[in-house]
Design brief:
12 helices, globular, 7-stranded parallel sheet, binds NADP nicotinamide-adenine-dinucleotide phosphate, about 325 residues, two-stranded parallel ribbon, single chain, alpha/beta
């Protein structure tokens, strides 16, 4: 059994973990059957750690379920939340909402995150690795980025040693955004570029995000780290690169943000999903998916597209199916 750096080996990574297990070997990952959490959990399992997930989708991913202990993301039950975090070394937190829907707002997600950190503090969790986003700010005009900054503040106030990993746009595995750009390029003869398309992004592979998280899980310093890939694209270049990858080039049409929102809302109505939110659109145009930090991700989007473009965007990836429609088909086949 390979040890995660900084700890001894974990020879008894059993599921469900027993009280006799070494607490230093048990980690909790939120969303281990979803996207980033899935990649983090995979790395932890490969390193011989015992993994418990907190999720609202306990029935997903039968294969993985055999290796992962499952507990609910019980934000409204502090005792249950604390119980699920007892005996845990590191909490890897990926919980967030992409957009407000029904009764769940960004303020709800901020409050839920605070409850999670409070439960972790009560349970004696040794470390939290929190997945945030590049350029969060308490002054941001965008609820998404403001909420992320509020959560980072709650984490700092928890007093628990922690690392904050801030990815830009994440690709690879069963991602939503890059996949859906590919889906649009495959299915629609034109593609809308909001504004001049010159704002920049530094996409990062989900396995690089997971690697950074797991490396930080076993460190003891408080750190904030951008998860940024080796390439920097303008948005127009990104769409062209995805077009090269899937072998389809739609006509690019530049529209102002307000008209782009109307078009994405129309596409959203057709696919019964929220394709792109106002915060995502405006944040991207403001350069919030860019970063001047040193490269921390090794996998390039261009290289990945060359190998995986053939399968990308064959199926639309629905955020609403994923999080709000019980029993709906999963977005894309599971990554290994
Ligand atoms: N994906 C990206 O391109 C990207 C880019 C930058 C930053 N991030 C950040 O990375 C983190 C993980 O993102 P992800 O894309 O990997 O998300 P995800 O896997 O779809 O979801 C992460 C976790 O949040 C929960 N969750 C998501 N939406 C929810 C909702 N509407 N109601 C209740 N629970 C919900 C999921 O619950 P279940 O376990 O029940 O699925 C899961 O535990 C987030 O903090 C996000 O802000 C992502």
């Amino acid at each position: 059994v390979t040890a995660v750096s900084g700890t001894g080996p974990c020879p008894r990574a059993q599921i469900p973990p027993s009280a006799a297990d070494d607490a230093a070997c048990l980690d909790v990952v939120t969303g281990a059957f979803s996207y980033t959490g899935r990649a983090i959990a995979g790395r932890l399992l490969a390193a011989g750690r015992a993994v418990r997930t907190l999720t609202a989708h306990p029935d997903r991913d039968e294969g993985r379920r055999r290796h992962i202990d499952v507990a609910p993301l019980a934000f409204d039950d502090p005792a249950a939340l604390a119980h699920s975090l007892t005996g845990v070394h590191t909490l890897y937190n990926t919980y967030w909402i992409r957009f407000p829907h029904r009764a769940t707002h960004f303020a709800t997600a901020v409050d839920n995150s605070r409850r999670l950190f409070e439960a972790a503090a009560r349970s004696g969790v040794a470390r939290i690795v929190h997945v945030s986003i590049t350029n969060p700010s308490l002054d941001s005009p965008y609820g998404y980025f403001r909420g992320k900054a509020e959560v980072e503040r709650s984490l700092a106030e928890s007093g628990i040693p922690h690392a904050v990993i801030r990815p830009t746009v994440v690709f690879g595995g069963n991602d939503v955004l890059i996949n859906n750009i590919a889906w649009l390029l495959r299915h629609v003869p034109f593609f809308v570029i909001p504004g001049d398309g010159r704002y920049r992004l530094r996409p990062v592979h989900v396995d690089d995000v997971a690697r950074l998280c797991v490396e930080q899980g076993m460190s003891s310093e408080d750190v904030v780290l951008d998860a940024v890939g080796p390439e920097r694209f303008t948005f127009t270049e990104l769409v062209q690169a995805i077009g090269d990858g899937v072998g389809r080039h739609a006509r690019l049409v530049h529209l102002p943000p307000s008209a782009t929102s109307l078009v994405t809302a129309a596409v959203g109505a057709a696919v019964r999903d929220v394709v792109l939110t106002r915060d995502e659109l405006a944040g991207m145009m403001d350069g919030l998916a860019d970063s001047d930090a040193g490269t921390t991700g090794a996998i390039s989007l261009s290289g990945w597209l060359r190998e995986n473009g053939g399968g990308l965007g064959r199926r639309y990836a629905s955020e609403l199916n994923l999080h709000y429609r019980p029993g709906a088909r999963r977005r894309r086949p599971e990554s290994p």
